[in-house]
Structures are given as structure tokens and as C-alpha cells.
Amino acid sequence: MDQVHVYNGMPAKHLGTEGWAKPWSGPNGGACVEVMRLNDGRVALRQSTDPDGPALIYTHHEIEKFIQGAKAGAADFLLTRPENLTTSAGSAPERRAA
């Protein structure tokens, strides 16, 4: 990763293949967020199902505040789904009945 200009939205493959981790992996069929700590302290995030896709680059401070906020419950609203949401897995009532 020497001499690579790191910027938000860059192809994740330009950051290399080593050093990516899945700290939030779960029983979701392998689709999860992967993270990499960069040499300058920033953090890169990518979608595990698209490892060559774009990488989101965050400063240490941004990641720190995000994690603190998530731990404090500031992102809990992301865990609820609108009742009218339909996905390939079906509507919310259909998913609950499954």
C-alpha cells in the first residue's frame, strides 16, 4: 500500500488484500462490512460481497465518534424496519411468520 493516494470512494482493491477484517460478521450469508486500519490511522470500510468496489475512508476521530454513538444507542433507529418494507425475503409480516 506504499505510495497509494487514499481517498473516499477509491476502489478497495487498491488498498490490497491483506489486513481486512470482519468484526461485525454474523449469520447473514456472508454479506457484511469489512474494515482495515490504514497506516495513517484512518479506517477503510468495504462491502464483503464486493471487495473490489468502493472503500469508504474515515478518520480515526470519525470512527471513534461513530462507535461511541452506536454503543450509546444513537443508531438504534436503524434496527427497526417500516412495516411496508418489502425485500426479496418478503414483507415484514411474511418474514415474522417464517
UniProtKB/TrEMBL annotation:
Q: Which residues form the DUF397 domain?
A: 20-71
Task: Name a Pfam family for this protein.
Answer: DUF397
* UniProt name for this protein: DUF397 domain-containing protein
Species of provenance: Streptomyces javensis
